[in-house]
């Protein structure tokens, strides 16, 4: 599917869901490897803001990036 103004919301949701799925898959992989005795942690430290009423922090790992790239390819593949 080509990215046009009409399908921006679909693009956004596909990317968001793929990033979430990639993050969860990476976390599962890290925990499985830890169970086998291999310790690996490529997750960044929390980045965000705290204004005493609302706080938002994001931790990014390689699965997040891979999920975003996969989401772009998935969006382009959908017809």
Give a verbal description of the structure.
The chain has 79 residues and is mainly alpha-helical. The protein contains 2 helices and 2 strands, in the order αββα. It has helices at residues 8-36, 62-77; strands at residues 47-50, 55-58. It has a two-stranded antiparallel sheet with strand order 1-2. It is flat, with a radius of gyration of 16 Å.
Explain the layout of strands and helices.
Elements: H1 8-36, E1 47-50, E2 55-58, H2 62-77
Antiparallel strand pairs: 1-2
Helix pairs in contact: 1-2
Average pLDDT number: 90
H/E element sequence:
HEEH
Percent of residues in beta strands: 5-15%
What is the SS-derived class? mainly alpha
Counting DSSP E segments of at least 2 residues, the number of strands comes to 2
Instruction: Tell me about the largest β-sheet.
Output: 2 strands, antiparallel
Spans of at least 5 consecutive residues with low confidence? none
Shape: flat
Distance between the termini: 5 Å
Residue share in helix: 55-70%
What brief labels describe this structure?
79 residues, 2 strands, 2 helices, two-stranded antiparallel sheet, mainly alpha, 57% helix
Summarize the entry for a quick read.
This protein has two helices and two strands, in the order H-E-E-H. The protein is mainly alpha-helical and 79 residues long. The radius of gyration is 16 Å and the shape is flat.
């Amino acid at each position: 599917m080509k990215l046009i103004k009409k399908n921006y919301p679909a693009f956004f949701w596909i990317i968001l869901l793929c990033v979430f799925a990639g993050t969860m898959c990476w976390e599962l992989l890290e925990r499985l490897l830890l169970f086998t005795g291999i310790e690996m942690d490529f997750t960044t430290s929390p980045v965000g803001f705290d204004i005493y009423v609302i706080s938002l922090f994001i931790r990014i790992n390689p699965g997040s990036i891979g999920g975003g790239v996969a989401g772009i390819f998935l969006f382009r593949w959908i017809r």
